[in-house]
Amino acid sequence: MLAFSPDLVDRPDDLRRAAAERAQAMPMPTAEQEVWRYSRIGDLQLDRFHPVAPTTTVHGANGYLADRHDLDTSTVHDVFDELSAAFYGETVLSIPRGVHVPGSIVVTHTIGGHDEAVFPRLVIDAGENSEVTVVERFMSSGQGASLVVPRLFVRTQQAARLTYVAINELSTTVWQLGHQQAIGERDSTTLLATVALGGEYARVRTDAKVVGQGASTRQVALYYADDNQMHDFRTLQDHIAPRTTSDLLFKGAVQDTARSVYTGLIRIGHDAKGSVAYQTNRNLTLSAGAWAESVPNLEIETNDVKCSHASTIGPIDEEQRFYLESRGIPPETAERLVVLGFFDEVLAQLPVGPLADELRQQVAAKLDRRTR
Amino acid sequence: MSTLEIRDLVAAVAGKTILNGINLTVSSGEVHAVMGPNGAGKSTLSAIVMGKPGYQVISGAVLLDGVDMLALPSWQRAQAGLHLVMQYPTEVPGVQLVDVMHHAFAARGMDTAGLDDRLGAEAARIGFDPALLERALNVDLSGGEKKRNETLQVAMLEPKIVILDELDSGLDIDALRDCALRIEALTNEHNIGVLAITHYNRLLEVLRPDYVHILVKGRIVSSGGAELADQLEIDGYAAFAGNDEPAGGALADLFG
User: A219-241 pLDDT, tens per residue?
Assistant: First the structure.
């Protein structure tokens, strides 16, 4: 861990320095640990990277950028949380009570390709009865190796409505180890969306906690790995308060020798009576050498709840393809329609405007590169 | 003038022979009804003619204007002029009918200019809500809407021969009437030939057949005019079950 020496902390900040020191003493996670099961964590050579400040631009946030916040960022799950606490570069968006922010705030991180490790932290605090849409984009400026360790902290205060979309368009030489933590207070509505197309190994863990009664969260994701990419998602729908709602739809595809894993948990705590939780994960395997895994879980500590989960993994549906072919549409076109349609269910929900067409084209371009 | 010729067709599903030598000839402008009880092989016949995966041809031929359809993939059969109206139209999430029609036209080298207007006009004619043209194909549609959608596609694509696989299942009497009348109009306006596969004769009360064939146990056991359907209504399928039917066969069928 020499590469992440406390001496590299570039600001005179005791908290950062202490975090860097703790990180030095922590072990690297291994795939033997349940939380890293199926991951490629064993392939990570952390020491090849050196920490640099993230290159971040923000558009559409006039007046909403803040210097400080009071969200709890202290929970440590692993060494990457400590490294983030030591080396993070922070963007704080604070939406005042009652304010409806028009359009979207777009936060863009551009990752170089020279063995950099970057630790962008985005904090979004949506005040009572406010409304905001934030798009966070992860892009690459080069084709070399780098590591990005994003942290997201979201608080949707009472009756606020927050939409967050993460878009991973990283080069296929970049590792991503992301963690998103969202808290929904009373009667709030939170949508957390992810589009993952890039990265060599891109992992995002999302903890969506509904702590106030009547709060609801919705999580959607589109992920599509080709060549030798791997996408790894871990989601927690954590119901603390009564009459809370969560819904999740994750749709992914793998082709060539790519891999993906989805692991999801719905947890209904003993005070969360009258809660409703759904979880759906659907995966397309588009090449013989591709691999996808789906691991849904339920943990329910009270009664009077409504929960369901569903997951599927398989090739393009033969009936759907036949239906289109029976209309005179050639197989390649039929498959393209089915795959784009499969993802459209997610894309149609994203408030990303013209970006949706761009993403649709990227999906189509991936499909065109497929080996069967 | 086009002709679909099914000759001595023997076919199986999962190793079990379902069709035991079917002979049928359908020409432009004609309406043929193939009627049969459950398990007679009605859906297998439509699936085999269109090339649905999972069905095996053992012997025989299916020719459209002399061209061997069995040698072609489904999409080329469709382009050659065959069309299947499905009993249970497949839901295709995220794919709109308007896109499917554009691709179907383009793949045939047909001009797509004015397609949207025509689609709107055909939708109005068949009573299909135009808003549904831009919704996911068959997803969350009622039985009637699905069959109106299927019929609309026949009108758009103007095949030479259309196979109706139980057009009358899963829809109300008004929708059935609208669909049947539209198909009948297409036989007159565009000289489309129809092979209507059905269990009951309620479809045939609107779409009057020129020929009726009774299919039992994978064979056509009787052929005649429209009066055959009326006779069937009175006598039931048991009267056509054939000489090899053992006594008590009808009961055995319950558990077959």
Answer: 999 999 999 999 999 999 999 99
- CA dihedral (B241, B243, B245, B246) positive or negative: positive
Interface size, chain A vs chain B, as Cβ–Cβ contacts under 8 Å: 83
Residues within 8 A of A (CB atoms), B 183-222 only: none
Please give the structure tokens belonging to residue A221: 């994701």
Question: What is the CATH number that goes with domain B3-87+159-255?
Answer: 3.40.50.300
Hey, where are the domains in chain B?
3-87+159-255
* pLDDT single digits (tens) B58-74: 999 999 999 999 999 99
Number of structural domains in chain A: 1
Record: contact B95-A331, CB cut-off 8 A: no
Which domain range does residue A286 map to?
Answer: 2-315
Q: What is the signed CA dihedral for B77, B79, B82, B86, rounded to 10 degrees? A: 90
Q: Is any Cβ of chain B less than 8 angstroms from the Cβ of A319?
A: yes
CB atoms within 10 A of CB A255: 24
Q: Do residues A327 and A337 make contact, with C-beta atoms less than 8 angstroms apart?
A: no
B67-68 and B55-64 beta bridge pairing: antiparallel
* Rounded average pLDDT over A292-321: 96
pLDDT at B255: 55
Q: Does A68 touch chain B (CB under 8 A)?
A: no
